Amino acid sequence: MKRLWEKIVALAGSNFGLKVLALIIAVGLWIAGHRDIERAIEVPVQFHNIPADLMLLDNRIDYVVLRFNGPRTLVSTLDPDDLKLSLDLTGAKPGAVSYPLGPGSFNIPRGVTVARITPPVVHLRLEPVVRRTLPVVVKLTGKPGAGYQIGQVTSEPANVSVAGPADEVRRLTVVETVPVDVGDGRAVIKRKVRLSADGKPLSFAPEQVEIAVAIEEEESSRDFAVAVRAKDFNGAYTVMPSAVSLRLSGAKSLLDKLELKGDEVFLSLKGLPAGDYNLPLMMELPSGVRVIDQKPQRFRVRITKPGN
């Protein structure tokens, strides 16, 4: 036995032995490479030439699963993108339509067989498309920072075109954006945002809008008692009552610093001759400040000496 083993080792070390060993390895590799295997591949589905007045609903699928049998060298190199399924919907009508699938539906290389296709039939439903133009509503989430509030909210464009199934589109009154977070905002928020289909088979034109959300200081009110005088008048006059009570509204930071003087609240007597008058009060208030209450509304004025 020992002598037999020594002969085998000597033969393997010879030139002839090496050639025989190489041949055995090559045959083994060839057999391994041509052994049949099974493989499942997800193949993408593409839909072409969908009529402009129709849309796909419900059972629209993105891929089918193909299970292949064949030599390892062929099956292992299959690329899903090379096998993709293209369904031509030219001339399709509203309603249900089915497309049975078979090996001929795919670009399968010679030597490979299809053991199974899942699903074996593609079922589709097509519905007429309805289009409407609807106003955009900007959906907001969160709250501005302390002391601030949401002011004017705008969308550009203010209206968009909506397309989708008749029942869905006719139920709509507005189109909402995806939520815009205004949390801790203290200035104008400007950005482009998408429109929300809310899970419904809808499309929009355009798909995005430019929104602007003004974040303003919260308004407060403050009461003022101001002496009533004429402005830029050097004549003689009397006024009854001699003061006005005002309640003003505006940003708190403005009202806290506001001091009303004769230049902001006054009577205009320029050019008036001597006599008795019932006049309104004139005001020149800072931008953003407005009067919400005034008592009295008018004043009795007697001019005894006209101004120069």
Lay out the secondary structure.
Elements: H1 2-13, H2 15-33, E1 36-48, E2 54-57, E3 63-71, H3 72-75, H4 80-83, E4 85-88, E5 95-100, E6 113-118, E7 121-137, E8 140-141, E9 148-156, E10 159-165, H5 166-171, E11 175-176, E12 180-181, E13 189-194, E14 203-205, E15 208-217, E16 219-227, E17 236-240, E18 243-251, H6 252-257, E19 265-266, E20 275-280, E21 282-283, E22 290-295, E23 298-305
Helix pairs in contact: 1-2
Short recap of the structure:
The chain has 308 residues and is of the alpha+beta class.
Description:
There is one protein chain. Helix 1 packs across helix 2. It contains 6 helices and 23 strands. The chain is rod-shaped. It is 17% helix and 48% strand. The protein starts with a helix and ends with a strand. By secondary structure, it is α+β, with helices and mostly antiparallel strands. Strands 2, 5, 7, 10, 11 and 14 form a 6-stranded mixed beta sheet that branches. Strands 4-1-3-6 form a 4-stranded mixed beta sheet.
Flag low-confidence runs.
26-33
How would you classify the helix and strand content by structural class? alpha+beta
Span of the ends, CA to CA: 144 Å
Order of helices and strands: HHEEEHHEEEEEEEHEEEEEEEEHEEEEE
- Total of DSSP H or I helical runs spanning 4+ residues: 6
**Beta-strand percent range:** over 45%
Q: What coarse outline follows from CA principal-axis ratios?
A: rod-shaped
- Output the radius of gyration: 42 Å
Assembly state (oligomeric): single chain
User: What percent of residues adopt helix (DSSP H or I)?
Assistant: 10-25%
User: What is the arithmetic mean of pLDDT?
Assistant: 85
For the biggest sheet, the summary is: 6 strands, mixed
